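Technical note accompanying the year-one report. For the benefit of new consortium partners, we illustrate the data format agreed upon in the data management plan: each record pairs a sequence with a structure-token string. No post-processing was applied to the example shown here.
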Amino acid sequence: MDSPPHDSSQDSQPGLPAAHQAVREEAPREPILTLPVALTAYVLLLAVIHLRVLLPPELENWTIDVFGFIPKRYDSSLLNLQIPGGAGAKVWTFVTYSLLHANLTHLGFNVLWLLPFGSALARRFGAVRFFLFLAVTAAAGALAHLVTHEHAVAPMIGASASVSGAMAAAIRFAFVRGSFLSFNRSDADTAARVPALPLSRALRDGRVVGFLAVWFGVNIIFGVGAIGVDSETTSVAWQAHIGGFFAGLLLFTLFDPVPRVRSDAADASSQDVSDRI
């Protein structure tokens, strides 16, 4: 005797419609932690470049002299001063210094700060804008360091000016409802693309002002980040952080592809809680 036909509905879990189970089974699982490709590539680049510490000491020092930012390089009164890199280094070191780090702690600290803020910014800007933004804020940090250390011989290295710029840019939208620091945050991509507040309104937001106060306090008191390196001393170039930070805060709009929030809706969009009756 033939066996009765198999009833596929018996494979379904009791109490759940088959269609519902299919949707549940096909729903993709989101990774716990994901980084945008642009940020991942940047971090890997910093890590690969840091392998220079494996070079012989003479070659490593030459690398820092050629690609680190040295204010003395621009001192016209010292015509006979020989600094490796020549005239070209006067141009490329405005950016290349930000790709070098003194040690793993220096590198790790910058990457740690960059992960939350840089991740949101990379998703918002896209790869090209993101890399260009990092270069511009690095140059702004170098310029601030040059103005305040015009006769310094010690090379400045570190990505802290770019990291500071990314943090400053990110707070333009970080606290907006649905963004990545909001209590009502959306998924990572949506949270990174909420409309930003106009700068004038952002600076009237207590959370933004509090963030600025803490950031400036930490940088001025402890000077965490970009480091000047020579054979005798290691010092903090905190002015470069501030230069990168202001560049990120003020130039954010030039890079931002997301339409800005309307002025009359800015206050409402910045709230983390729903209106209550």
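Partners are asked to follow this layout when depositing records. The domain at 35-269 is CATH 1.20.1540.10 (Rhomboid-like fold).
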